[in-house]
Amino acid sequence: MVNNKYKYKTRGSIESGGSIESGGNVKSSHETNLYDIVIIGAGVSGLSAGIYAGRFQMKTAVIDQHVGGTIVLTNDISNYPGFKQISGSELIGKFREHAKDYDVQIVKDHVEKIEKCKYGCFKIFIENGHFHTKTIIFATGTEWRKLNVPGEKEFTGRGVHYCALCDGAFYKNKIVGVVGGSDSAVKEALVLAGYAKKVYIIYRGDKIRPEPVNMKRILENKKIEIINNTNIMEIKGNELLENVFFDKPYEGTKKFKLDGLFIEIGRIPLSGLAKNLGVELNDKDEISIDKHSSTNIKGVFAAGDVTDNDFKQAITGAAEATHAAYEAYKYITGEKIICMCDNEIEKD
């Protein structure tokens, strides 16, 4: 095991700020060992990094308010090697069970800020305490991009949604729309077709761009219709969504009746914590990494959808994360890191 000789005390009980799952023993007191690695984010990438860090016998914590990430909202995954078909929640369940084979602590909490200590380690603040760690992996993922049109905010949860798997069942025998032209948008439409009587894919471009297998499914589904070269400019209704308004007429009018609207127009990288730490981002606010998943700050790594990798898949995120864990292991075994921040770390 990668050992250390120091302890630190949190300012409050970690357990009171969130629950902890672990394959090993978790201390219930206010004292916690200095960590070799803390992974922020517990989706496919974060849990992959945790599994490999555990295999390297590193003292490991994975922190996330919502374990599983956005993939748990995916109903049908058929491109993850080893599984012909599996849901996102089932896949994450297997990752979590695997992580429990090692001494990996999964902490359900929100990271508020991160500070770099002058001794070369890092201090990660959660609601009621903080962690000291020698290395960090950012696996924070993304959040849904909004249309930012009038009515979107007002009707969110009352006709406007961002997850067909979560909310599609409310629209049985209704008319719904999906905004977007990506493979993800097409998958949303296919899920909704299982409930709704009619599904419109509304896309601003000339042609939707799903994977060939999903294009075939769309073209074969008589419930689904595609409206290209069209933007939604406004969303209106009373208690619930009733109509959207296009930027140009469709079948003679800009007003278009819908019972529900599902928005799938991409994601925004959750890179704020990394940015505040001084990690370099690209012009899309994605974390810039090299082929080793390293950032511009020593001891800081990143993996998954939050990075500048242009091919974002669960399998690529898992690969980046395992590489990041390996590079973190090499870093802490090759560097002399002594962390004595604010006199909070004491020798055993």
Descriptors for this entry?
single chain; 348 residues; alpha/beta; FAD/NAD(P)-binding domain; 2 domains; 8 helices; 28% strand
The CATH class designation of the largest domain is Alpha Beta
String of helices and strands = EHEEEHEHEEEEEEHEHEHEEEEEEHEHE
Low-confidence stretches: 3-19, 22-31
CATH architecture of the largest domain: 3-Layer(bba) Sandwich
State the separation between the terminal residues, measured CA to CA: 17 Å
Tell me the number of helical segments per DSSP (H or I, 4 or more residues long): 8
Largest sheet: 8 strands, mixed
Strand content: 25-35%
Task: Write down the overall geometry.
Answer: elongated
What's the Cα radius of gyration?
23 Å
Mean pLDDT: 88
Global structural class: alpha/beta
- The portion of residues assigned to helices is 10-25%
